[in-house]
Specification:
Layout: E1 23-31, H1 34-45, H2 48-51, E2 56-63, E3 72-78, H3 81-85, H4 94-106, E4 107-119, E5 129-137, H5 140-153, E6 161-169, E7 177-183, H6 186-198, H7 200-209, E8 213-227
Antiparallel strand pairs: 1-3, 1-4, 2-3, 2-8, 4-6, 5-7, 5-8, 6-7
Amino acid sequence: MKKLLFIYLFFAYTTFANAQQIYWNCFNIVVDNEVALTKALDDFMNTESGKSMTPVSLSEMANSGSKYSATHGLCFFSPDASALESNREKLNNLQAGILMSTWDSEVTIESSILGQSLIADPSSFDLNFNVIVQINVKDPAFYGAAFAKMKEETVGLYNGSLELHETLAGQETGVTHIVVARAKNMAEWISGRNKIFASDAFQSFSSSVRNISEVLDIHSARVLKQYNAN
């Protein structure tokens, strides 16, 4: 089964500086009982152990192709890779036990993906609707520079966030990078997307990266819950 990337979850954390790198780990999951999982997650994250974890987000799939079975994503993120790695140690109390029991009975893990941000916009990290584009990039330095130029030249056309991320481990074969387009809702994303696609800046960007990149998948999702994000 193809793996989903719920990267959009990680970026509701508005205190990160624009130049600060964010490391993230996302579990793409099939949830049988969303209510039970959400309650168990709420109860644990409200404990002292839960509050000591890095920021956490839970999302639901909005639009995807038939090849996907994942319904949700649970993601952890931090500017400190060591803090991200230590989250597992925080599952050390009664509520953690209840959460893990609920996880075992209500959740099936499809994949776990590790990555890091390259270009992100913290002024728009609280936007709810997210479109994720999985890409194979053959020349990361050229693609990144071209993306940054296009983003700067189209900033007035899109009331949202355009971000570039690198996948490090666990990603689907061929996926090297993720572009995330964030907006307040689906309608605003469509409006901004159409304006950007019609712009000379995007046409120039698309032409310049055509021979060094390939879009492998596009899907969307909405954020349900965020913890420790302030």
